[in-house]
Amino acid sequence: MSASMSGNTASSSSSKKSLKAFSDDIWKNKTAKINAELFTLTYGSIVSQLCTDYERDFAKVNKQLYSMGYNIGVRLIEDFLARTALPRCDSLAKTSEVISKCAFKIFLNVTPQIGNWSSNKDSFSIFLDENPLSEFVELPMDAARELWYSNILCGVLKGALEMVQMDCDVYFASDVLKGDQTTELRVKLNKILKDEIPAGED
Amino acid sequence: MSQKIISPSTSVNSTAHPGSTGYDYTIGPQQTLPELPVSSSTTGGGIGGGASTAVSTTLPLPSVYNESLNPNARNQHVSLSAYAFLFQELVSQARNASKSVSEIELRLHRSGYHIGIRLLELLNFRSSVSAGFGSSSSSKAFFSKTAMNPSGNALALNGSLSSTQDEPSLAQGISHMKRRDLKPVEILQFIHSTVWSYLFGRVSDDLVKSSERENEFMLIDSAPMLTQFISSTNVQCDFFVCGIIEGILDSASFPCNVTVHSVPEPNFEQKVVFVVKFEPQVLEREALRA
């Protein structure tokens, strides 16, 4: 069932970081794959359908994409933890590293850059050099002003982080589809949700 | 919006009407991204650069066509679970917006249809790019080779196209476009093999012609990839794939109706059959060809 490995362009550079090697291994050997373009096209189909449904009210489309992403995120974290069996991250820096090197890698096969830390280390940015969602995409003029095309990613991160007791704000700061230089996703940690751990679990 | 509709000169400055949208035949293909950093451009010319300002931006914005039409695209896979999550949201979106089961299926079908009409073009285009025209280094080699040996009219066309691009255009890798499929069986085989391999990494399990009806064909998939995690049979989510098939066939001028039927078998409980029912005019056209 799993797709063939040919054409997988995982970098063969010396993997100094163990987390990177770890994720590469999961991606290569333990992940069923599907054509990334089918993924891109399906997402495009969803977004364009939403734009039609909401009569090009892009604020509503953004919101809907976000809530779809949230629904995915709260489930996806289960899948992620089952695959990786990673322990709890002890700092936000560690969390950011796991998100970029592990989560993005094993789900979307990209490794975005992390940067732009705030001075008190409670927020950071994810720079998506490659975005499998927005391949083939050029936004029409009206959409380019308001639509955050890949807003579903924000919802996914929000939902997934919330399930590991991290209450975060996740939003796009810029997008190359809007003519910006980079695609920047901002993650801001509000608080750790301590109370929501079910009794009897650590 | 001071959009000039008719412009007598082809040398019109493309920045003269920044509010314009869409294709302007007096200028030809151009970048349509809004407020592309013309204002923040560090090039000396500033706004007066004419057509070149569209290209000489501060960051080398890759053309959506040049990059993604390349048959050897960089990143070929995402995880199936990421797709399954997305597909699940597609289905629930369709469900929330619908009142009946058939409406859900119609919406899924429509989503797939839009993919199908794009896929036909994309796959045909890619298979027309000659082998070896892939990474930028090999494409440069290809370019220099053809430049040394100028033959055929394709080169003249390509030369003019590539003059505005820094890297050689993908068009140089195409000597002639792939012939279109003209017979129903040919286009169905294209779906059975090329499309299925592209989408699901394998050919479909069978392609059969109906023995009862002249205009019916069946594509069989024993283990549908997209719906393998969906257990409910109330809504047939494979209508999404129906839409893809119908989109391809429609844009290839084979108007038809595609439906899907679940045919569980002991070893393949999720086996589905896609029934392609061509419109009568397709058969009439076939009769004329014979």
TrEMBL record, chain A:
Cellular compartment(s): Endoplasmic reticulum; Golgi apparatus, cis-Golgi network
Gene Ontology biological-process entries: Golgi vesicle transport; macroautophagy
Transmembrane segments: none
Protein name: Trafficking protein particle complex subunit BET3
A Pfam family assignment: TRAPP
SUPFAM superfamilies assigned to the protein according to its UniProt record, in alphabetical order: Ligand-binding domain in the NO signalling and Golgi transport
Keywords associated with the record: Endoplasmic reticulum, ER-Golgi transport, Golgi apparatus, Transport
Lineage: Eukaryota, Fungi, Dikarya, Ascomycota, Saccharomycotina
InterPro entries: Bet3, NO_sig/Golgi_transp_ligand-bd, TRAPP_component
Chief localization: endoplasmic reticulum
UniProt record similarity statement: Belongs to the TRAPP small subunits family. BET3 subfamily.
GO CC list: endoplasmic reticulum; Golgi apparatus; TRAPP complex
From TrEMBL, chain B:
Location(s) in or outside the cell: Endoplasmic reticulum; Golgi apparatus
Major subcellular location class: endoplasmic reticulum
GO CC annotation: endoplasmic reticulum; TRAPPI protein complex; TRAPPII protein complex; TRAPPIII protein complex
InterPro entries: NO_sig/Golgi_transp_ligand-bd, TRAPP-I_su5, TRAPP_component
Polar residues bias spans: 1-18
One Pfam entry name: TRAPP
Keywords: Endoplasmic reticulum, ER-Golgi transport, Golgi apparatus, Transport
Region described as Disordered: 1-51
GO BP terms in the entry: endoplasmic reticulum to Golgi vesicle-mediated transport
Family to which this protein belongs: Belongs to the TRAPP small subunits family. BET3 subfamily.
Name of the protein: LAME_0H10792g1_1
Organism per entry: Lachancea meyersii CBS 8951
